[in-house]
Amino acid sequence: MGHATVLVVDDEPLIRWSLVNRLKQEGYRTLEAGTAADAISQHREGADLVLLDIGLPDADGLTVLKQIKEADPDTLVIMLTANTAVETAVNAMKHGAFHYANKPFDLDEVMMIVEKALETTQLRREVRTLRARQAQPYGPESIVGESAPIVAVRALLHRIGVSPASTVLLTGESGTGKDLAAKVIHYSGNRASRPFMNITCSALPETLLESELFGHERGAFTGADRQKRGLLESADGGTVFLDEIGEMVPLLQAKLLRFLEEKSFKRVGGSSDIKVDVRVIAATNRSLEGEVKKGHFRDDLYYRLNVMAVPLPPLRDRRDDIPLLLNHYIDSFNTEFRKKVRGISPGALAALQSYGWPGNVRELRNAVERAMLLSDGTELKEEHFPMLNAQESGFSAEVPLPAAGINLEALERSLVVQALERSGWNQTKAATLLGLNRDQIRYRIEKFKLERHPISS
User: Fold this and answer.
1) Residue 17 lies in a domain
2) Which tens digit of pLDDT belongs to each residue from 44-58?
3) What is the torsional sign of CA 52, 55, 58, 62?
4) Cβ(430)–Cβ(422) under 8 Å?
5) H helices then E strands: how many in the chain?
6) What is the pLDDT of residue 245?
7) Which tens digits make up the pLDDT trace of 82-97?
8) Does residue 57 have a cis peptide bond before it, meaning omega lies within 30 degrees of 0?
9) Checking DSSP bridges between strand 274-275 and strand 99-103, what pairing results, if any?
10) Domain total for the chain?
11) Do both 300 and 320 map to the same domain?
């Protein structure tokens, strides 16, 4: 572990010199101390490892060990001891020392102990960091941007997360980050340690969606050969995220409303009520109020969901955030693709800031991902963003309907196949090409019974 800092504590200058000289040769930074008082002071400067003599003029090494471990439990300590004090060294290990080395010691042997100790402390820190990330993977800071609309949204999501609100409605155009907003709410409050379950209401047929939500009893329908717990039951204590709630059929809307009001439900084919405590976050890119007027969505369910509503702004209303988002995604894809892109050319940045972004933040992320894959240099340029050229040429996503009509299902199947083949059957990337999510692409793969066939030699 090069560049680590090692504190050498010994009252004999020659021993300190020999250890410090060898540590520097191995690439470590070093600190020195000849007394217990100096050792405590030097440790505050930031040492990853301490080589600590047991016999110091102003205190015994065990006392210094305890003070070091109290100040920073992650600091590893190797005791330096005379052969006559081995029992004392063993006692020190019981109090938190990593190892000990006997005087006169072999420098190569000491360096091996140092290396093992530093590997241990690095592993401990990595585990702690990983646990912290797992405990709080989606804090409010996950939402990148400093524009007024996004600052307000970030604050609102946090307030909702720490509140007892049991239903939340996220609205906004496709690609505005409703799924991320739902996770921020979940991980901001006391439900963070409990499950976060999500489902896209448009991705499954009515019967499967009902079973996924509420579960089913054995024999409830053809193929139900065993009992199954639904998302609501599995998420007890946590959150269920219902994306594209506007696509839910009326029968399920009624069942969902009953659950929201009574906090209980029956499995498909079941007769017993099951009570759970979950927060339901619904999301839609439709105007539910408009759907209510058309008779497509229950007004009572709409009013129940709309108690705590969060509208997410489109990217065109927060253009000041585009440079921050670009840098965020460049850093992310540099790590993922092992690239060294440093930034974006002024011309490309200006064009991206004036672009309409109909797909919002999701489109921007996908655009940066494509650009990073297309670029071999350290700077992204306009030619790396094909949609800018399409915009200049007047390309429109509108496809004219032929006079003879079209087989929509055959066209959909063809587009799904093309996306899968172009992405090497990477479902996430294929979904991105079609503006879908992974659940939706999986549904279509099953719907059209698509299989990847090995290339014949």
Assistant:
1) yes
2) 877 888 999 988 888
3) positive
4) yes
5) 19, 14
6) 96
7) 766 667 767 888 888 8
8) no
9) unpaired
10) 4
11) no
Q: Is the pTM of this model over 0.70?
A: no
Residues 292 and 419 in one domain: no
In a domain, 299, yes or no: yes
Tens-digit pLDDT profile for residues 407-431: 888 888 999 998 888 888 888 888 8
Largest CA distance in the chain: 99
- Rounded CA gap, 305 and 17, in Å? 71
Q: Are residues 364 and 268 in the same domain?
A: no
Cα(387)–Cα(410) distance, rounded to whole angstroms?
Answer: 26
Give me 312's structure tokens: 């997410």
DSSP string computed for 261-299: HHSEE--BT--S-EE---EEEEEESS-HHHHHHHTSS-H
CA distance 99 to 111: 12
Q: What's the rounded Cα separation, in Å, for the pair 138 and 142?
A: 6
How far, in Å, CA of 167 to CA of 180, rounded?
A: 16
Q: Which residue has the tokens 């969606």?
A: 209
What's the alpha-carbon Rg for the chain, to the nearest Å? 30
Whether 454 is covered by a domain: the verdict is no
Task: Give the pLDDT confidence score for residue 83 in this predicted structure.
Answer: 63
Q: List, for residues 127-136, the tens digit of each pLDDT value.
A: 655 555 555 5
CATH number assigned to the domain comprising residue 420: 1.10.10
Among 171, 192, 384, which Cα is nearest to 285's? Answer: 171
> 443 lies in which domain range?
408-447
Q: 441 vs 142, 199, 416, CA distance in Å?
A: 26, 13, 8
> What are phi and psi for residue 9, nearest 5 degrees?
-120, 110
73 burial (CB, 10 Å; 0-12 / 13-18 / 19+) is exposed
Q: Which of 108, 1, 109, 114 is nearest to 52 (CA)?
A: 114
Q: List the one residue out of 78, 38, 44 whose CA is nearest residue 56.
A: 38
* pLDDT band per the 50, 70, 90 thresholds, residue 346: very high
* pLDDT reading at 178 higher than 90: yes
Q: What is the dihedral of CA 426, 427, 429, 431, to 10 degrees?
A: 160
Q: Give yes or no for residue 168 having a pLDDT over 60.
A: yes
For residues 243-269, give the mean pLDDT: 94
Say how many C-beta atoms besides its own lie within 10 A of residue 44's C-beta.
9
399 confidence band (pLDDT: 50, 70, 90): low
Both tokens of 221, joined, read 């329908």
Q: Which of 80, 117, 73 is closest to 95 using CA atoms?
A: 73
On whether both 336 and 369 belong to a single domain, the answer is: yes
